Amino acid sequence: MWDYDKSKVILLKTILTLVVILHHIYNEGFPAIGFIGAIGGNIAMYLFFAMSGYGLTISYLKNENYIYGFLHRSLTKLYIPYIIALIAFVIYRYAEGIDQIALLKEKGLLSFVPTSWFIWVLSYFYIFFFIVFRYVKASNLTKVLLTCALVMAYVFIAPYLEFESHRYNRCPSFCVGMFFALYNDPIKKKFVRWHAWFVLIVLLALLGLRVAHCFDPIIYPIALFILMYIFKGVRELRITNFLSSISMEMFIIQFLPIYIAINDLHLTSTIGVVVFVLIVNVTLAYAMHLLVKVILRYKNNVFVKLKK
User: Fold this and answer.
1) Vertex 225 angle, CA 14 and 73, to 5°
2) What tens digit of pLDDT does each residue of 217-266 get?
3) Cα 109 to the center of its chain, rounded Å
4) What is the C-alpha separation between 248 and 245, in angstroms, rounded?
5) Contact 196/202 with Cβ under 8 angstroms?
C-alpha cells in the first residue's frame, strides 16, 4: 500500500479549504452550488480535524523532541492569523456602522470572526496533546488514549456549556487521525490493496445508508485515510503548494469577501459571487500570510536578543 504523504496533505488542504468556502457561500443563499455546498463543509471539517490529529501524532512518533516548544510554535501559528483577521473584521464592521459593542455583548468574541471557533477548539486540542505527550510517562498508545479522552470530555461537556453543535460534533475525527498515525506502519504492512478497497466500499455503503449521523466523524476520516493509502502520491503543483501554504489564512478570513460580495456589492450571480470571493479571499490570505511571516521574524529576532 502507498503512504499518506506530504503531496496528498498539500492537495487535501487546498481542496478542503475551497470546499468550506463554497459551503459558506451556499449557506448565504446560493443553492446553485449544489451537493458540495450542501454537505461538503461538514465533511471537510471532519477531515481537517482528522488530519490535525494525524499530523501531530506522526510528527511526535518520528521525533519525540518535536514536543519541546510545540505549544508555543503551534499557538503562535494559530493566533497571529486570527488576531489579524479579528482586526480586519472590526475595521469592516466599523465602516459598515455596526454596533460592535452590542454584538460582543449578544454573541461574544467568537462572532467577530465567524470561523474562529475552529482556531479556539484546535488550540484546546493542542494543549491536551502537549500536556499528555510532554508530561505523561507511558506508552504511545496510552498517550493517544489519554489525549482522546480529553477530546471526548470536551465533546460531552460542550453541549452543557451551550456551545453550537458545530463546535464539538466534528471533534471525534481528531482521535481517528491520532490512531491512524499510531498504527500507520502496521496498516501499510498488513493491508493489501483489495483489503483497503473492501473497507472503503463498506464505509461508503454505511454512509449511503445513513446508518447514524453520530458515526460520521469516524466513518468519513477512516474512508479518507484508507483512500489515501490506496492511491499513489500525487504530483505537487505550484498552485496547490501556494494555496496549501495560505490555507489557514484562507479559512479564517473567508467571510470578509463573502460579506462584501453579498452585503455591499449585492452580487446575485452564483458564478460571480464564487469568482469574486475566491479572488479576494486568496489576495487577503496571501497578504495576511506575508504579514504573519514579518511578525514571526520580528518576534524571533527579539527573542534571540533577549536570550543574549
Assistant:
1) 55
2) 888 888 888 877 777 777 778 899 999 999 999 999 999 999 999 999 99
3) 20
4) 8
5) no
